[in-house]
Amino acid sequence: MERDDKPLRVLFAPETFNLGETSRAVEVARAVRDAGHETLFMGYSRLFASYIDEAGFRLELVNPELSDGEAAMMIAVDQGRGFRHPFTLSMVRQRVASERALIARWKPDAIVIGTTLTLFISARAEGVPLVYVRPYAMSRGHLAEMTSYPVSSGTGLPARALNRMAGWSLRHVARALRWIPRSFRRVALENGVRLPARTVEAIDADLNLIASLFPYLDQRRSAAGEEAVGPVYAHGDGELPQQVLNLADRRRPAVYVGLGSSGSRELALSILGELGSLDIDVISSVGRFLTEHDRALLPANAQVFDYLPAHRLAGLIDASVIHGGEGTVQTACASGAPFAGIGLQAEQRFNIDECVQYGNALRFTARDLRRGRLPAIVARLLSDAALRGSAHRLQEAMVPLGASNSARSVIAFAREGGARAE
Questions:
Q1: What share of the chain is helix, strand, coil (3-state, %, to 5)?
Q2: Strand residues in 50-206 grouped as ranges (E)
Q3: Which of 5, 176, 186, 346 shows its CA 20 to 30 Å from the CA of 287?
Q4: For the residues of 151-174, what is the DSSP string, one character each?
């Protein structure tokens, strides 16, 4: 039998068009590598492949390569802005064939995924333990406790009623829903895999690591096969530019603007334009969304970069304006400064609302932007003692243990379920 101290092989397979998902996988992979085990990444998109390369990991881009249009389609579905997805029968067949070939060649002891859906077929076909590092929102543990879910971005009585109805419906309906795209069912059967009938079970891995802050802090009840590991957010190796480091000597407040990989040019320009009226310094990582012409027309108080190691901003910023991606929210919490969040889909609004309830954040909407309310919201972030006190207290709880907790669970699970005869 395999020795308990024998190095394992762990394959990481995030959807590499999603920055939050990719950076989360890199953090867990670092902890696995530091524990003495071998790692390999695979992906279908080149969009954030460089993030993996720069972290010192080997990445194999496999076929069929995901086009920018297909990636945008998947983001739109995730944000509730569309229903079309690129998972045709041909694509699912090709992806499963590529995944199975890589698994058979590299022989991993475990596979760690984000929302890489075809690996729910491939890993099972190859008999390799599958670990899903995921947010709490819409997990089985969350569904069991859900009373409201923010499908509406509004805050009035009708929106609250709609969100309570959505919570009730999801709690009772989602657990019984039996919808799986035909392409997945057919390819699963072609590969000798019978997917569970219920949707929520079909996208459940053998082990599901809940990489969210509050389920870990609050010790919320988890469903079977789920484990709360705590926050996992990006700790990139890059350094902050000197002009950002100069904010240590700032004479006016500094506000960070970050929109992850799910923002847009229009949203970035709208936020930066609104903040141009304030006597503050604005630093932002939204450059990837902007043209050179856009940059030339930005407010004088804005410094824009394509990428910033946002975890290094703690102590340099006084507030953040962000979208609601899990990693971005966690990084904002770790800064010790309050934030305002615009959720681009229900899961992101849920992430923000968890912090609103804690007391370190405010939620704003596209309507607030259109009506010019963002400057007043940011002014409150900078002056409200209760918000700032809650942000400081939460920073003390934001010890980044999620990656090391995840690595220990992955390694133990691989030893238990993936041992091979020598």
A1: 45, 15, 40
A2: 59-61, 110-113, 130-134
A3: 346
A4: SS---SHHHHHHHHHHHHHIIIII
* CA separation for the pair 40, 63 (Å, rounded): 16
Phi, psi of 303 (to 5 degrees): -115, 125
Question: CA separation (Å) from 414 to 2, 14, 16?
Answer: 11, 18, 24
Under a CB-based contact definition with an 8 Å cutoff, are residues 337 and 315 in contact?
no
Q: How many CB atoms lie within 10 A of CB 323?
A: 26
Give pLDDT tens digits for 15-64: 999 988 999 999 999 999 999 999 999 999 999 999 999 999 999 999 99
Whether 146 contacts 167, CB under 8 Å: yes
Cα dihedral sign, 321-324-328-332? positive
Distance between alpha carbon 8 and the CA centroid of its chain, in Å? Answer: 26
Kindly state the tokens that stand for 313: 């901003």
Q: Report DSSP state, residue 241.
A: P
The one-letter amino acid at 143 = L
Q: How buried is 383 (Cβ within 10 angstroms: 0-12 exposed, 13-18 middle, 19+ buried)?
A: exposed
* 8 Å CB contact between 265 and 294: yes
Q: CA 259, CA 121: separation in Å to the nearest integer? A: 32
Evaluate the omega torsion of the peptide bond into residue 375 and state whether it is cis, within 30 degrees of 0: no
Length of the chain counted residue by residue: 422
- CA dist 344 and 325 (Å) reads 9
Q: pLDDT tens digit string along 202-246?
A: 889 999 999 999 999 898 888 999 999 999 998 887 899 999 999
Cβ neighbour number for residue 40 with a 10 Å cutoff: 17
Q: Distance (Å, rounded) from C-alpha 280 to C-alpha 261?
A: 25
The residues, any chain, with a CB within 8 Å of residue 18's CB and separated by 6 or more, are 48, 75, 114, 115, 261, 262
C-alpha distances in Å from residue 160, one per residue of 149, 151, 311, 420 = 9, 10, 33, 52
